């Protein structure tokens, strides 16, 4: 089979690999679509270290069970995965905090994932509930968003809100957060440098959108009487994004640095100013089993509009071009398929 393999930093290659073999309890998934995640781009650049190359990347996947050695899984079921294969027994796992498990293996990080024609889900993953089955009414074009939507739901649950929120970035994450914010009844402002993405944010319910110019930032501050209650940064948290977040939040407001940051990026704070500004600083990442279950239900209920999000598809054989497309921020979401 063809697969996109992360061999080392700055080196991605299309390889011919054997179809994964199964042992008792495993299942084989035929991949329909797999979305390119910002974390995969960051790993390829060398900005994050929680990958173990060489590995087939890909964790935002939609597929069909084509071979099952597990008594509880049937051939033909449509599935995606919870890509964090944790121990299932430690204190963190027992409290739905699998991401803090000390014995975690990540699909597409440590073990082969969805940028391939087929993927093996090991017995342990099935036994610990990491195989997520959905009805056929959920198409693969929506199913690949189940995991990132779970991350957004987790952030919405953790973040303090009042009346208004500014979302930095109108990529897939920012656009899902936009819809969730509107469902929560919040005045929702989206800041995005690309005009096309701002237009999509408006179609999905954003009250106002802004580019990153000084004039637009001043307009946002004017509209919100000095700043929003909450900022969620759903973009790369470099120095300019960090500065912008602090510029548009009100005194006493909350800043959630959801997005990844370049390697070595630091947040420096004058503690006296911070004390009197009263800002609440936090970072949300990943998901919980509960947020993935909520995400699944929202997909089944057709509660969100995913149609504008998946804009670009490439066959696995053009996987390098797919990564270039995603890195260049063309369209919104780039996915690969067999």
Task: Write the topology of this structure.
Elements: E1 2-8, E2 11-16, E3 27-35, H1 38-45, E4 55-56, E5 60-68, E6 78-81, E7 84-85, H2 91-94, E8 105-106, E9 118-121, H3 123-127, E10 131-134, H4 140-143, H5 146-158, E11 164-168, H6 172-183, E12 187-191, H7 195-203, E13 208-210, H8 214-223, E14 228-233, H9 239-248, E15 249-256, H10 271-277, E16 280-282, H11 289-300, E17 310-315, H12 319-327, E18 333-337
Parallel strand pairs: 11-12, 11-14, 12-13, 14-15, 15-16, 17-18
Antiparallel strand pairs: 1-2, 1-4, 3-5, 3-9, 3-18, 5-6, 6-10, 7-8
Helix pairs in contact: 5-6, 5-11
In short:
This protein is 30% helix and 27% strand. The protein is an alpha/beta fold. The chain folds into 2 domains: 2-147 and 287-337, Quinone Oxidoreductase, Chain A, domain 1, CATH 3.90.180.10; 160-282, NAD(P)-binding Rossmann-like Domain (Rossmann fold).
Q: How would you characterize the overall build of this protein?
A:
Helix 7 (195-203) links the parallel strand 12 and strand 13 (208-210). Helix content is 30%, strand content 27%. The relative contact order is 0.16. Helix 5 packs across helix 6 and helix 5 (146-158) crosses helix 11. The protein is α/β, with parallel strands linked by helices and 338 residues long. The mean pLDDT is 97. The protein has helices at 38-45, 91-94, 123-127, 140-143, 146-158, 172-183, 195-203, 214-223, 239-248, 271-277, 289-300, 319-327, and strands spanning 2-8, 11-16, 27-35, 55-56, 60-68, 78-81, 84-85, 105-106, 118-121, 131-134, 164-168, 187-191, 208-210, 228-233, 249-256, 280-282, 310-315, 333-337. It has two domains: 2-147 and 287-337, Quinone Oxidoreductase, Chain A, domain 1 (Alpha-Beta Complex); 160-282, NAD(P)-binding Rossmann-like Domain (Rossmann fold). Strands 3, 5, 6, 9, 10, 17 and 18 form a seven-stranded mixed beta sheet that branches. The protein has a six-stranded parallel beta sheet with strand order 13-12-11-14-15-16, with helices on both faces. It contains twelve helices and 18 strands. The N and C termini lie close together (9 Å).
